[in-house]
Amino acid sequence: MIDTHCHLDQIDSPEAVAKEAESRAFTIIAVTNLPSHYARALEPLRSCTHVKPALGFHPLMAAANQHELMPFTRLARTADHIGEIGLDFSEKGIATKEIQTASFARILDVLRGRRRFITIHSRGAVGQVLDLLEQKQVGPAVFHWFTGSGTQLARVIAAGHSLSINPAMLRTASGMRLIESVPRDRVLTETDAPFSRVDGRPARPWDVKLVLERLGQLWTQELTEVDALIGSNYARLLSPNG
């Protein structure tokens, strides 16, 4: 199984979670909010095979952390996993719309020219994120916890991008409509742990099994078949040949 969007550094006892992931051969993409957070994660995770740190620059952190754009450029030279990055034009982020957009454009300039795994934040800004990805010729990317419209979803799919599904999305009608609309070869699993919740508690990476089980019901497939497909979808995003 794979959790493509997990804030491992913000989970209680991250070292224990990483150790368990290694023992289970469970893949975790450990997203970060800033390059400095990613840099701190590199050494503790260096010996891990299945826990992969991702270089991030969260849009809601952009205004107060412009000094971290240069470290992002330096660290991106060797980073195969990127996230989370993107835009947030919700009520929380709209006041910093301009600086977010400028920062995201600079980040995409850095990422051009090499295929990587990229997990994207797009709350309230799906159209603007798509515009910049197209303009900068970056992708395919993965839209995490997508909350856009059906029209926007169609545009995401047409552009070749994927979506990652978490357990919280299973609990809403809009989430289920989205899940039912995404082609199987564009689906990935995530938890957004510890920010999403399962049974009233912070999610853990292993909670992606709930998503796999629901997808199995929708697709009339065994859990192992769904898991294999998700793994193939992830591997394809890292492959130079797509």
The helix/strand class is: alpha/beta
Number of strands: 10
The oligomeric state of the chains shown is: single chain
What is the number of domains? 1
Task: Please explain how this structure is put together.
The strands form 3 sheets. The protein has a 5-stranded parallel beta sheet. Helix 4 runs parallel beside helix 5 (126-136) and helix 8 (208-219) packs across helix 9. The chain is α/β, with parallel strands linked by helices and 242 residues long. The protein has helices spanning 14-24, 35-45, 69-75, 97-111, 126-136, 150-158, 173-181, 208-219, 223-238; strands at residues 2-6, 27-30, 51-53, 81-86, 117-121, 142-144, 162-165, 187-189, 197-198, 201-202. The two termini are 21 Å apart. It has 9 helices and 10 strands.
Kindly list the characteristics that best describe this protein:
9 helices; alpha/beta; 242 residues; TIM Barrel; three-stranded parallel sheet
In short:
This protein is an alpha/beta fold and 242 residues long. The protein has helices at residues 14-24, 35-45, 69-75, 97-111, 126-136, 150-158, 173-181, 208-219, 223-238; strands at 2-6, 27-30, 51-53, 81-86, 117-121, 142-144, 162-165, 187-189, 197-198, 201-202.
Secondary structure: elements and pairs:
Blueprint: E1 2-6, H1 14-24, E2 27-30, H2 35-45, E3 51-53, H3 69-75, E4 81-86, H4 97-111, E5 117-121, H5 126-136, E6 142-144, H6 150-158, E7 162-165, H7 173-181, E8 187-189, E9 197-198, E10 201-202, H8 208-219, H9 223-238
Parallel strand pairs: 1-2, 2-3, 4-5, 5-6, 6-7, 7-8
Antiparallel strand pairs: 9-10
Helix pairs in contact: 4-5, 8-9
